[in-house]
Amino acid sequence: MRTILNIIWVVFGGFWLFLEYLFFGIIGCIFIVTIPAGLACFKIAGHVLWPFGRDVVRKPNAGAGSAFANVVWFIVAGLWLAIGHILTAAAQAITIVGIPLALANLKLIPVTCFPFGVEVVSSSNKQPW
């Protein structure tokens, strides 16, 4: 079922979101100071391309640096990427088939807004927060 949902996801919006994250990742890697943000974009891009069967968990050793990076990220890119997810979710929720896709889109917003201090894992390897 995950594979079918992922294929439907890629066709109906996931690919364009993936390209958006790749674009912002490349922009982030242009400047030395923003390379961590660019790498975070690439990490999220993989999750955005194939989201079903994966979960986001907190890293237990994330500290104040992650919190600061998340605040900067949210202002610079996170808010705008989250708006893209909301608009895509609204378009997907119009049909019955798109409702699970819209819910998955909304599930991606927390990691989009605050990508530092978390990691994407397979659902079978999920560790408790």
Topology:
Blueprint: H1 2-30, H2 35-49, E1 54-58, H3 64-92, H4 99-107, H5 109-113, E2 118-122
Antiparallel strand pairs: 1-2
Describe the structure.
- This protein has 129 residues and is mainly α.
- 67% of the residues lie in helices and 8% in strands.
- It has five helices and two strands; from the N terminus they run ααβαααβ.
- It has helices spanning 2-30, 35-49, 64-92, 99-107, 109-113, and strands at 54-58, 118-122.
- The protein has a two-stranded antiparallel sheet.
- α1 packs across α3 (64-92).
The proportion of strand residues reads 5-15%
Structural class of the secondary structure composition?
mainly alpha
The neighbouring-strand order within the major sheet is: 1-2
Q: Helix-strand pattern, N to C?
A: HHEHHHE
Distance separating the two termini:
26 Å
Supply the number of helical segments.
5
Main beta-sheet annotation: 2 strands, antiparallel
* Helical amount: 55-70%
- Total strands: the figure is 2
Sequence stretches where pLDDT stays below 50 over 5 or more residues: none
Instruction: Estimate the mean pLDDT confidence.
Output: 86
Characteristics:
8% strand; 5 helices
Nutshell version of this structure?
With 129 residues, the chain is mainly alpha-helical.
